[in-house]
Amino acid sequence: MADKGSGKRWPSQDIDADVLGALAHLYRGKVYRSTHWHNRLDNSTNWAVVTTGIALSATYSNVNASPLPMILVGFLVSFFLVFEARRYRYYNLFRARARLLEAKFYAPMLSGAKVDVDGQWGPLLADDYRTPHYHISFIRAVGRRLRSNYSWILAIQAVAYYGKLAIHPVPLTN
Fold first, then answer.
1. For the whole model, what pTM was predicted?
2. Could you give the C-alpha distances from 22 to 16, 34, 127, 169, in angstroms and in order?
């Protein structure tokens, strides 16, 4: 392709058309899988938000309502956090593969540079397909999901629980 302003041409790539097509389809598949797993993350976050809303309604429905639903839903939201951390590890695996193709293959090609087909990215990607492994630990995935979503949900639950106790401090009768 010629650049109209400078008259320069993009360097010819030493990539066969069939290899280029295969890499394009591989990238499309990785983006699709990444999007699919991201949607699954959104679903578990939505479940956590909805159950928190139900617990808030039950807790603040009347003066005699117990704050216990906030505690129980706190445990349930913790389980959602564990499920989402597991899903996040899958999401991160597909996202990292798509990002590697973007950074090492498509970006040089689109910027007019020659794609380094003999570089380290090809063997790295091939090794990731031969011996798939998670790129982050479970604890790190929990930390990322906790920082991005669940800290807010759990903080709202804690404030609501203590708010219920402050508004209606009734001693236990039985």
1. 0.74
2. 10, 18, 17, 66
